[in-house]
Design a protein that fits this description.
Helix content is 13%, strand content 27%. The chain is α+β, with helices and mostly antiparallel strands and 411 residues long. The chain has one domain. It has an eight-stranded mixed beta sheet with strand order 5-11-3-2-13-17-16-19, with helices on one face. A hairpin with a 2-residue loop joins strand 7 (125-133) and strand 8 (136-143). The N and C termini lie far apart (63 Å).
């Protein structure tokens, strides 16, 4: 039904609302901009708490330097999230219009470091790089044994939960390095109790995201990650080593009001059913419009460049991944699906006249559906009077994707 409706109609309805923060507060968020073998990874530092107790460890495929790390405006992450999030829309009979399939869809506008490079605080551990970036004090470590790495972290004020030695050893055996960061309180402006997003650039032929290390600090709870992939290819991004799951959408919600967060959360639970998997929530070309656009404005080429994406031509894919520590047996591996259809998670506010066009959520198509009068459907091409959108519309809880190490207070 999704493919049929998407190819046959252009809907120029009204954006009603989105699930918003209700479905991202407990999810880690990461933007992955991929160009050739270069990846720019942006983490949404939505950490809340005592900044003196913040720390994180990220596996990286090579030694990154100060030139490869920077802070970005947190609004950019919120913009990408807002543009691509699942949405509920309101349509009327007048909104239904036939569309010329040869044309693309149009948008509906509506301090001082405490360690130094080369230091070996523990036998088998080397500080490959050391620098500060904004409020972060960063080191890049190499190690021979996970026990040595844990010893170095402990000696430098990181408290890593028990049980992570085996996972850390797997990363070491794979030849990766570890970027460790904590807050330099001297660099935090007075009164600031939040952290800027951290952006890291590196080169690797493999395109992956380390999630296993995050299970060390998960406390056994299920993890959820939102991945926003920016690619030069006009094809959706998929995850090759976990199953794809589809969620029921493109249906009308009864009594949903303006907030469908609960309904969508329930749909996710039904689709995943306690299993590990990923859902494509959005995949759209950067140079075409949206149907309909959310309340967020699209990103400019300059803002895309700020996310490490050098081109305005490409695609934004949004993936939601859920797993338990036991189910996370591998890090996420991404691939080009070769599918260039524009798609999004969309729900429609219930209107009896549209029963002939859309099924009702959890009920299906009605036996005696309501229908629009033929005279209410004015045949037009695309969205009359609409202009293309200007562009495209982590870890929210760092413990979701990273091994977040709580820092001990020092006297």
């Amino acid at each position: 039904m999704l493919l049929l409706v998407s190819s046959a109609w252009a809907f120029c309805g009204t954006f009603v609302g989105s699930a918003g923060s209700d479905l991202r507060n407990h999810a880690s968020r990461v933007i992955l901009a991929r160009s050739g073998d270069e990846t720019t990874l942006t983490l949404a530092a939505d950490y809340q708490g005592d900044l003196a107790a913040f720390g994180l460890i990220i596996p990286v495929p090579e030694v990154v330097t100060a030139d490869d790390v920077r802070l970005i405006n947190p609004d950019l992450i919120d913009r990408v999230d807002g543009w691509s999030e699942p949405r509920m829309v309101a349509y009327t009979c007048e909104d239904l219009a036939t569309v010329d399939r040869s044309l693309p869809p149009m948008g509906c506008t509506d301090s001082k470091l405490s360690f130094s490079k080369g230091e070996s605080a523990e036998e088998g551990v080397t500080v490959e790089a050391a620098f500060t970036e904004g409020e972060y004090e960063i080191v890049v470590l190499s190690a021979e044994e996970s026990g040595d790495l844990l010893g170095w972290l402990d000696a430098n004020g990181y408290t890593v939960p028990e049980g992570g030695e085996a996972i850390l050893q797997e990363y070491i055996d794979a030849g990766v390095y570890f970027l460790a960061a904590k807050v330099s309180l001297d660099a935090v402006p007075s009164g600031q109790n939040w952290l800027n997003p951290l952006q890291i650039r590196y080169t690797s032929a493999a395109w992956s995201l380390p999630i296993r290390i995050g299970t060390i600090a998960s406390g056994g709870e299920a993890q959820e990650v939102l991945v926003y992939a920016l690619t030069e290819s006009d094809s959706a991004v998929g995850i090759s080593n976990y199953p794809e799951v589809t969620v029921d959408d493109e249906c009308m919600l009864r009594d949903a009001g303006d907030d469908f967060a609960v309904a969508y959360s329930d749909a996710l639970d039904v689709a995943l059913d306690g299993e590990a998997g990923w859902i494509q929530e959005y995949s759209w070309s950067l140079t075409t419009g949206c149907d309909p656009c959310t309340s967020q404005q699209g990103l400019t080429p300059e803002e895309l460049e700020g996310l490490g994406f050098p081109s305005y031509h490409g695609r934004l894919t949004r993936l939601r991944v859920r797993y338990t520590p036991e189910q996370a047996t591998q890090d996420l591996t991404f691939y080009d699906t070769r599918i260039s259809d524009n798609a999004q998670i969309r729900y429609i506010r219930y209107l009896e006249d549209l029963e002939e066009t859309f099924p009702v959520c959890n009920e299906g198509f009605m036996d005696n559906p309501g229908t629009c009068d033929a005279g209410q459907r004015a045949p037009v091409v695309g969205c009359a009077g609409a202009a293309p959108a200007t562009g495209v519309g982590l870890f929210g809880a760092f413990s979701g994707l990273l091994a977040v190490a709580a820092l001990r207070r020092r006297a």
